[in-house]
């Protein structure tokens, strides 16, 4: 389950501790189920299992593919691809955080930081939407077409940003196609993976540019 990592001190740190205690209780009472990435499946950051749909060798050259040309998006894709295959050590312990916590959002913000995008190192995926909203970068798409998402952008799964049970996972887009996205995500079967996912179960995306 997601435990928020906030960079601010004092009040925010105390809030993060309270959330961590609440999440530990949820982990103790909830089975650790590995979920496939299919059109109807829920996606949970700390329990996500990779169910990749391999791309064809020529997929990235298809006319329907849209690869971002903007500098920020290109940097994000390059950095994210360099992390594919990285595995956590122990239980959620990674180089993306000094704490051993669920890390899909920590991976995404680490990549964005490396690409020069100044975003706080959030652990809760809903905070990515709220940050983007404050910067004019978030795009709400629940129940609507996905819109002009591009490589380098972040896609958020679930029903909304209010809690870890409603905002469940984040991926970095590396390719956009008519019926699916190619994405890279952290904490998928305990590692960084690149895979194809349906253009569904996404409530919002956050613009890298």
UniProtKB/TrEMBL annotation:
Gene3D superfamilies: endopeptidase domain like (from Nostoc punctiforme). Signal peptide: none annotated. Residues 100-187 form the Peptidase C51 domain. It comes from the Bacteria. InterPro entries: CHAP_dom (IPR007921), Papain-like_cys_pep_sf (IPR038765). This is Peptidase C51 domain-containing protein. It comes from Luteipulveratus mongoliensis.
